[in-house]
């Protein structure tokens, strides 16, 4: 799993599968202690749930927005 990489270019994200984009996006939340609820997310990232409970920094939010844009372009669900 790739860690949060705010410098990752759009081209690099564009080469990822929908699943890899999902992992990229949720890895950012996992780093910030998001409390995952789905079995898939818990299986992938573990039992996370600590402060700041998924609150993202501005750089992290920009990266997540880039990933979401690629997910939309690719028609990921």
UniProtKB/TrEMBL annotation:
Signal sequence region: none
Domain YARHG, residue spans? 1-72
Q: Which Pfam families match?
A: YARHG
Q: Which domain of life is it from?
A: Bacteria
The molecule here is called YARHG domain-containing protein
Give the organism the record lists. Answer: Xanthobacter dioxanivorans
């Amino acid at each position: 799993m790739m860690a949060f990489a705010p410098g990752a270019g759009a081209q690099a994200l564009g080469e990822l599968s929908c699943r890899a984009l999902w992992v990229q996006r949720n890895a950012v939340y996992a780093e910030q202690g998001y409390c995952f609820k789905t079995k898939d997310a818990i299986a992938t990232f573990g039992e996370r749930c600590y402060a700041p409970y998924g609150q993202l920094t501005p750089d992290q939010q920009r990266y997540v927005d880039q990933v979401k844009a690629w997910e939309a372009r690719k028609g990921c669900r």
